[in-house]
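Cross-check.
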Amino acid sequence: MAYNGFAIDKYLDAAEVTRQLDELIKKPVYSIRKDKLEDYVQHYFEEKCPKSKAMISEAKKVIPGGVQHNLAFNYPFPIVITKAEGAKLYDLDGNWYYDLLQAGGPTIIGSNMPAVREKVIDLLNTCGPSTGLFHEYEYKLAKKISELVPSVEMFRMLGSGTEACMCAARIARLKTGHKNLLKMGGAYHGWSDQLAYGIRVPGTKGLLSKGVPNFVFKHTDEFFPNDLEDLERKLKANRFNGGTAAVFIEPVGPESGTRPVSREFIRGAAKLARDYGALLIFDEVVTGFRIGLSGAQGYFGVDPDLTIFGKIVAGGYPGAGGIGGHADCMAHLGAGLDSSGKKVSKAMCGGTLAATPISCVAGYYTLCEIERTNACEVAGRMGDRLTKGLQELIAKYSLPFVAFNQGSICHLDSVGTMHFVVDWKKPWTIPGVLKETGIRQKEMEHMGAAYMAEGLVTLAGSRLYTSAAYTEEMIDDVLSRFDRVFANCGRVEV
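Predicted model, tokenized:
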């Protein structure tokens, strides 16, 4: 496609990446050497981050675990960030870092960009953050999204991607009259009870959903990523048990493409959903406005019935969630006065802080800025440069690591934690799989700590987001820091 405004120049070979990941989990674990990790802990974290350490120690007295956000890196202790600007973060002790976390993905134009911040400040000086009543930017944002994403005829803002997925499930059941939900194994569609199923590792079902009774999953099942035959088996089985209301898909693969899927799978899944009378729901919380202004669906040429939005939809500001789709589906989500003249069942949906003036104005001007600067393509080019450089470093040090990307969503898998599979046909293997993933997870944390000490903030040491705030020179400097870490990696005895 040669970019053409999208983040992706040439889509990856999903089968080849999968083969590499299959090989990774068969090999011994390589990670930062123990002596070098201890050196990082002593000479960086202990000596250069004492204020962060002290604050986290105090925070643990009033906050469970000491931090509020699941993305905060915890080994050996979380770093306290006080400033975000463009491609960089600054901590309480005055250290700075390249931001490859990007708040989990929402800041594709860079953090705290003036063009958006000034509009937010103007709004705060006049309207304030929230009124509970209609604001003009509710309309402006919805109209902007409907203009950019062809499948979105109507859009409703919500508080988070989790809330949007909950609404999507309700809409699907009302629209189809069916009961069951199918989701891609390993994918994360928020933390609501019925969708907290088969997360991170395919086949885990409810194993990782502590506190959720198993009966909640009566009408939820997972299918294996990139496996159309498995999806169809589940669709066929559901025909005799209430039908399938929705097929949820992360369009580049579960966990933002950690286990990538092919173009053929995406198109085949869309056809199967329609053949069996289910709504096709694209979870574009990460890919929406990052892969392209028309989302991953625009890149793949797929027309989902509903699309889940989050993160970028508010540009990093609070209240980042929403759902859009075909008008006949969205009619089930009407609020207030409904002038359609049609009587349809309405899904229960709300949120005091959904579609606040601050989230809508931030979202609107973020999208305008992405469009003006061609941010999706710029960030994608930086992602390509980063990934190519990482692949060269992996070869340089003969490490078993796997680096790949889908535009500005980059993956650096050193241990393959999320590439394992739980096979319920062989239940005796499950404890071993869980033990192995736990060991590898710990080493992933150690790698993340090494990156942090070299001035690189990542998502769990394995996922890297680039933004349009990066330059080629910055990416080259980032790679020099990864080089220093890779030079000190070796086989781990477990």
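The chain has two domains: 14-111+374-491, 114-372. Residues 293 and 371 are 7 Å apart (CA to CA). Passed to J.P. for a second look.
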